[in-house]
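Backbone shape codes
____________________
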Amino acid sequence: EKEGQIKPRSRIYEFWDRRHRKITLLDNNLLAAPNWQQTMEDLLTEGLEVDFNQGLDIRLVNEENVGYLKRVKTEELRFAFDDTGYEKAVRQGIELLLANGLGSRKLSFYFLYGFPVIEQECIERVEILASYNVEVYPMAYKGPDGKEPRRRILMVDGIPLLHGSRRNIDKFLRLVGRLPE
């Protein structure tokens, strides 16, 4: 939406170095691209492990593409949950992925916090994600001036902002160390 119209770019064969069995896609929303299915077919045909680095849109997960998401080789599937207005779609997407055999620890969510929003909304999003036991990757909001606004750490059940693996807790604690008091 904010990044403009999604357009098909190139097939993986135009940039994939065949000496490598892993590929990183920088598409900002592959599931919204008209050629998403072709891209998935190419990844499966070549048996490549893929990193959907910019994330996928959880609101677009459906019966058609969940089969591809289940079969494609990937360490994790990244999504985002930045607005409680998407709660229903986030829940439906997670539940569809889980019902089709993808484990909760394979699902990771970028989590924007610190922007002008009601604190309770932020806590609600954390609690929703925590209820599914998915990985959470916190990302601090930076204003138009590039500075992080003053804020305090959100605590949910005694856990700073997130529920996830030791790896993500460490990332979060490093990030918090940069925050102004």
Q: What stands out?
A: Residues 162-166, 176-181 have pLDDT under 50 and may be disordered. Strands lie at 22-25, 49-52, 77-80, 107-113, 135-140, 155-156, 159-160. The CA atoms of residues 111 and 138 lie 5 Å apart. The chain has five helices and seven strands.
